[in-house]
């Protein structure tokens, strides 16, 4: 053909062939219920072999593709004719059961809990589960080890991540501080003069410890002076030209840290420089952070994989300061890193308990400490107070009163905006007073859907709606828990644009499963955030979730106003009950000594030992 040379002709043929392959893969995936955005992800991962690889083992999708879980892979497998009792399915189901446990915060499970869980989830006989578990242990996909005298099974990645955290913390803790010795007797009066704040005895002791320690944990509830203490430490170290990096798990927490220290703070994901193509971090042991001190705020929110990533990226010379309230809910992800570090006794811990006079005037702070101590909060109504309880006899009355409080009473009495300033925080998603149901009611009351709307994935989105990102999207640089507002809906382009703190983020309509309405959210999702006003519905319907640290975390999210709505009995159940549920994690045991220090073995030695003991382990 005129004007087309052989090279260009070859490129055209190759391009056409590639498009044909992509089209075939898309048709195969669409016919098996996979949407376009995930189909693209699958093609990028598997290339031209996608159909063959998925046909051979559809369960690899749950392992390899971000955003695809066991249930989606299982639907594809069923369409491909794979039986429920097929070994390939039951073996994948072991990891699925452990992933379900991971969603509850566990790093592993005792065998006697794992096997019935897998049996119920997969609907197969226990004997098949037992056989599949043995094969998965042989392959090293999962690892068995003893924890508190019980045989537990862990996902291999989490098992190694907890062990690596323990080894890194121990190695850091024994090193020299990256700054020369500082005379605390001179530095403390100097910093008090600079800040015009007199430090309490407990804060002075904490400053002394921080100046002499390579690793330090500072913990305590609201109003105990954590911010003042951290600022004093940073001022002293900055005067010694120490290079400091500050981070927090969420955008809101990082912003608060920046405001309180006047030093730039980043989210952990931004600090570690996420690669949007892979979801991996660019900062690691081969490309470490450039800092002498890393300060991590809201550490109770940091899960096992994220803490491992942070410690990998921390240079050996650097010091580490972990700050957080250990009595809040543990991380949404697996593990209880801060609680385990504190309980292990492996690193210095400063626990601040004295509530300062100014903070003690806030009923929010006083009642938060009462709740944390297992005491009922003071619910006496006070005209100029910041803490209220509104009685509601049943969930139906509770919904009506939540709507009235958010839409009318708070704006009228306190001059706050119902959408921007007020956040409803629920113990759980389900039920009439759960986050899902209340979101629909609050949207109807505060921003009724008009003609300009889009219905997707069970939600109706309209301009002006408050929304939350519910999964990490590295391409868009928005992360699980980030709050935004719908700015524009472009029906013809098939796009929704949301505003996240001044950043406009565009979603194709097929990507809207990443967003949910956020007039109401769960207390878990609110971690690391503060709001001018919070409204917390509490009902005996929420019984499974009524724990002391859940209500404590919810109450401490409110800056100017906290309103509880519901039954006093539900509040009493939460306050008097257990502080929290047991999480199966091995970090505390390893840090405290445990089996890992026998003979001072390294990671590889302990893997070999695990195999000798009949435990299977992957090479790290």
Number of strands: 21
Sheet/helix structural class: alpha/beta
Can you tell me the residue ranges where pLDDT is under 50 for at least 5 consecutive residues?
594-620
Mean pLDDT: 87
Strand content: 15-25%
User: Termini, distance in Å?
Assistant: 56 Å
Question: Biggest β-sheet: count, sense, barrel?
Answer: 6 strands, parallel
Strand order of the largest sheet: 6-5-7-8-4-9
Figure out the total of helices: 24
Radius of gyration: 26 Å
Rough outline: globular
Percent range of helical residues:
40-55%
Task: Provide a short characterization of the protein structure.
Helix content is 44%, strand content 17%. The chain has 620 residues and is α/β, with parallel strands linked by helices.
Explain what the structure shows.
By secondary structure, this protein is of the alpha/beta class. It is built from 24 helices and 21 strands. The longest helix is centred in the first third of the chain and has 26 residues, at 6-31. The termini are far apart. The model is unreliable at 594-620 (pLDDT under 50).
């Amino acid at each position: 053909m005129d004007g087309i040379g052989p090279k260009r002709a070859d490129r055209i043929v190759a391009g056409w062939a590639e498009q044909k392959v992509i089209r075939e893969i898309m048709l195969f995936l669409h016919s098996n219920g996979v949407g376009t955005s995930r189909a693209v992800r699958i093609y990028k991962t598997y290339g031209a072999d996608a159909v063959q690889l998925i046909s051979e083992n559809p369960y690899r999708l749950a392992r390899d593709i971000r955003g695809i879980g066991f249930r989606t892979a299982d639907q594809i497998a069923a369409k491909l004719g794979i039986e429920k009792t097929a070994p390939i399915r039951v073996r994948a189901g072991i990891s699925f059961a452990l992933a379900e446990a991971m969603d509850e915060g566990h790093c592993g499970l005792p065998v006697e809990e794992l096997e019935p869980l897998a049996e119920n989830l997969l609907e197969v006989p226990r004997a098949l589960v037992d056989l599949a578990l043995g094969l998965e242990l042989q392959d090293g996909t999962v690892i068995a080890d003893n924890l508190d005298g019980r045989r537990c099974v862990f996902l291999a990645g989490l098992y190694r991540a907890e062990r690596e955290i323990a080894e890194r913390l121990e190695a850091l803790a024994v090193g020299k501080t990256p700054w020369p010795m500082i005379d605390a007797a001179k530095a403390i009066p100097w910093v008090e003069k600079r800040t015009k704040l007199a430090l309490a005895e407990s804060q002075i002791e904490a400053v002394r410890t921080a100046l002499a320690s390579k690793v330090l944990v500072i913990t305590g509830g609201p109003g105990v002076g954590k911010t003042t203490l951290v600022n004093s430490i940073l001022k002293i170290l900055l005067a010694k030209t120490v290079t400091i990096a500050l981070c927090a798990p969420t955008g809101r927490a990082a912003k608060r840290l920046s405001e309180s220290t006047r030093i730039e703070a980043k989210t952990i994901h931004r600090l570690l420089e996420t690669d949007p193509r892979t979801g991996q971090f660019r900062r690691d042991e081969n490309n470490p952070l450039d800092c002498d001190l890393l300060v991590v705020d809201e550490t109770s929110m940091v899960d096992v994989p994220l803490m491992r990533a942070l410690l990998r990226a921390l240079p050996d010379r650097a010091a580490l300061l972990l700050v957080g309230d250990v009595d809040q809910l543990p991380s949404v992800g697996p593990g209880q890193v801060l609680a385990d570090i504190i309980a292990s006794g492996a690193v210095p811990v400063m626990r601040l308990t004295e509530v300062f006079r100014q903070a003690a005037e806030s009923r929010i702070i006083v009642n938060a400490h009462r709740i944390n101590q297992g005491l009922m909060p003071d619910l006496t109504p006070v005209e100029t107070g910041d803490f209220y309880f509104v009685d509601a006899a049943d969930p139906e009355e509770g919904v009506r009163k939540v709507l009235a409080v958010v839409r009318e009473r708070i704006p009228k009495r306190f001059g706050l905006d119902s959408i921007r300033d007020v956040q409803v925080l629920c113990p759980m998603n389900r039920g009439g007073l759960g986050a899902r149901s209340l979101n629909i009611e609050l949207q109807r009351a505060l921003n009724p859907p008009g003609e300009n709307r889009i219905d997707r994935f069970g939600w109706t989105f309209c301009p002006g709606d408050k929304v939350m990102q519910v999964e990490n999207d590295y391409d868009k640089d928005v992360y699980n828990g980030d709050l935004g507002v719908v700015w524009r809906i472009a029906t013809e382009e098939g796009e929704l644009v949301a505003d996240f703190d001044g950043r406009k983020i565009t979603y194709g309509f097929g990507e809207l499963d990443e967003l949910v309405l956020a007039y109401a959210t769960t207390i878990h999702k609110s971690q690391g955030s503060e709001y001018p006003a919070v409204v917390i519905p509490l009902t005996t319907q929420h019984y499974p979730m009524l724990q002391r640290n859940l209500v404590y975390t919810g109450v401490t999210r409110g800056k100017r106003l906290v309103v509880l709505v519901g039954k006093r009995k539900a509040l009493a159940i939460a306050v008097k009950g257990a502080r929290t549920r047991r999480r199966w994690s091995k970090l505390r045991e390893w840090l405290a000594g445990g089996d890992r220090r026998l003979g001072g073995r390294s990671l590889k030695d302990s893997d070999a030992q695990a195999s000798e003991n009949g435990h299977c382990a992957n090479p790290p």
